[in-house]
Amino acid sequence: MSLSRRAVIGSALALAACERPRPSAAAVSLAPLKALAPFPVGTAVQSAQLQDAALAGLIAENVSQLTPEWEMKMEYIVQDDGGFRFDAPDRIAAFAREHRLRLFGHTLVWYAQSPKAFAELDERRVAFPDAYRNYILAVVGRYRGQAVGWDVVNEAVAEDGEGWRDSLWSRKLGPFEHMRLAYHHAREADPDAALFLNDYNLEYLPKKRATFLKLAERLLAAGAPLSGLGTQTHVAADLEPGALKAAIADLASLGLPIHVSEMDVSLARAKGFRSRADLVADQGRVYAEAARAFMDLPAAQRFAFTFWGLRDAESWLKREKAWDAPLLFDDMGRAKPAAAAWADALR
Ligand code: G3I
């Protein structure tokens, strides 16, 4: 083989080697998450993400449940003229059907969203209570027989635990009544879906968690068809050891199914100056504690364990700090040590 030919082939091989994405130092080899867990594993998803074949494949391989990240909320569905659009959530529902994944509806009533069509409702034409019921019947009814559950009310409790948040819904229909009605309307639309109360910071704020549990008890006492509790679990890598275990055990004390509904573990939100290596190790510890705490629940109370995304690249937290890496898979979809830590803790 002449030098020039050998040189050409050698340089081509060298080029190919550097074009191949180098396995990140952190990549680990792991069986699909849903094969490792004795409970449904979920992820948040946006319809546009399903056009990315690599991501769609990672989702189908690793999870058995999908939560629309934002396209099943009022901000997407309710148009300014009061009409509804379902094209995007329908695409997510279709993907779920195609890949035999459960669909979890998120979210019907949220203080953070009060679309113009509701805020400016001309009560001379349609009474607010009718519009509220009609919305819930339309959305829940559309996915009846497919959605296994819904976050009916999201983030109702005040951060300081002193009561419930104020919202368009509480002002128009009553602080407690708007929540009670939401569960009844959802049940009217779907006799089978599990109806959840969902909130966040329940591991950081015991007082908020206590108020959350009191609200759940009050809804049950009022006959609301509440059938599960969601703890979002958006936490940071420096979360105090034991906080997740305590929160999940406390939330399970009512005997209702528990959904870890939105877990991610931010590196960037951790306080103090820690090396990335230390943050990554802490992140694994936090994911492991959540997995172990969830496994400690009776099987009947393990509704699902949902990550708020699979690949770091899609995380909402990267809008806050682009360097954050809160999820179990890196930007290329390779499993990280956090994924191994979570999986090992299930054993
Ligand atoms: O994709 C559109 C883009 O086409 C458009 O140009 C742009 C401007 O309107 O909007 C983009 O959609 C945004 C969407 O995220 C996708 O990035 C929406 O505006 C934005 O409101 C939406 O934010 C979502 C947020 O909830 C509000 O719905 C986040 O993705 C989502 O991660 C976040 O999730 C919440 C849970 O529902 C409740 N718990 C906390 C969690 C994190 O905040």
Description:
The chain has one domain: TIM Barrel, CATH 3.20.20.80. The protein starts with a helix and ends with a helix. It is globular and about 60 Å long. About 4% of the residues have low confidence. An 8-stranded parallel barrel has the order 1-2-3-4-5-6-8-9, surrounded by 4 helices. It contains 13 helices and 9 strands. The longest helix is centred in the C-terminal third of the chain and has 20 residues. The protein has 347 residues and is an alpha/beta fold. Strand 1, helix 3 and strand 2 form a beta-alpha-beta unit. Ligand G3I binds next to loops.
List keywords for this structure.
single chain; 347 residues; alpha/beta; TIM Barrel; eight-stranded parallel barrel; binds ligand G3I
List the helices and strands and how they pair.
Elements: H1 3-19, H2 33-36, E1 41-45, H3 53-62, E2 65-68, H4 74-77, H5 87-98, E3 102-110, H6 116-119, H7 128-142, E4 147-154, H8 168-173, H9 177-189, E5 194-199, H10 206-221, E6 228-231, E7 234-236, H11 243-251, E8 258-266, H12 276-295, E9 302-307, H13 337-344
Parallel strand pairs: 1-2, 1-9, 2-3, 3-4, 4-5, 5-6, 6-8, 7-8, 8-9
Helix pairs in contact: 7-9, 11-12, 12-13
The structure holds ligand G3I.
Ligand G3I binds at residues 46, 69-70, 73, 75, 154, 200, 232, 262, 316.
Question: What is the CATH first-level class name?
Answer: Alpha Beta
* Domains, number: 1
Classified in CATH, the superfamily is Glycosidases
Computed structural class: alpha/beta
Tell me how many strands there are: 9
CATH topology: TIM Barrel
User: What characterizes the major β-sheet?
Assistant: 8 strands, parallel, barrel
Q: Could you give the distance between the termini? A: 55 Å
